[in-house]
C-alpha cells in the first residue's frame, strides 16, 4: 500500500521531485487559460454583443492559444507557463526528453477534460499516464 502519492514511482514525499499536488495543477491551468484568453483577445479582439453563431473563430481562440502554449512550452521549458510560474515541470517517467509528440497528445487529452480529471493513486491524470509523464515540483 502506498503511503503518499508518488511513492510507487520512487519519488520523494515532498519537496523537489515530488508529485505536484492538485492545488498547483489547478492554479497552473488557470494561469495558462487566463494568458491564452488575454493573448487571443489581444490579437483577435472580443465582441461582447456577437451571437454564438456570429462569433466564429474568436469563440475558440482562447482554447487554440492555450493548446499552442502547451505544445510550445512543454518541450522547450519543461512545462507550460503556469507550471513554471508555480514551480512545476513535466518529466518523462524514464527520465528522457519529453520530445515533440507527447505535448501534442497530452494537450489534446487535456482539452477533452475527462482524462485530466481522472487520477490514479499517484495523482497522475490519464493524460499523463497515456504518454508516460509525471508532473513534479521543480
UniProtKB/TrEMBL annotation:
Q: Where are the transmembrane segments?
A: 26-46, 58-78, 99-119
Keywords, A to Z?
A: Cell membrane, Membrane, Transmembrane, Transmembrane helix
What is its membrane topology? Multi-pass membrane protein
What's the main place this protein lives? membrane
Domain RDD intervals: 20-131
Write out the annotated subcellular location.
Cell membrane
Protein name according to UniProt: RDD family protein
User: Which species is this record about?
Assistant: Microbacterium aurugineum
Amino acid at each position: 500500500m502506498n503511503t503518499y502519492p508518488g511513492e510507487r514511482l520512487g519519488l520523494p514525499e515532498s519537496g523537489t521531485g515530488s508529485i505536484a499536488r492538485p492545488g498547483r495543477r489547478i492554479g497552473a491551468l488557470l494561469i495558462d487559460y487566463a494568458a491564452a484568453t488575454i493573448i487571443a483577445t489581444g490579437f483577435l479582439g472580443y465582441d461582447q454583443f456577437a451571437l454564438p453563431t456570429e462569433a466564429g473563430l474568436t469563440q475558440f481562440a482562447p482554447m487554440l492559444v492555450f493548446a499552442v502554449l502547451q505544445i510550445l512550452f512543454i518541450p522547450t521549458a519543461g512545462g507550460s507557463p503556469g507550471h513554471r510560474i508555480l514551480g512545476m515541470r513535466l518529466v518523462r517517467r524514464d527520465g528522457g526528453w519529453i520530445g515533440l509528440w507527447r505535448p501534442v497528445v497530452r494537450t489534446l487529452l487535456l482539452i477533452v477534460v475527462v482524462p485530466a480529471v481522472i487520477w490514479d493513486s499517484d495523482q497522475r491524470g490519464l493524460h499523463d499516464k497515456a504518454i508516460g509523464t509525471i508532473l513534479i515540483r521543480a
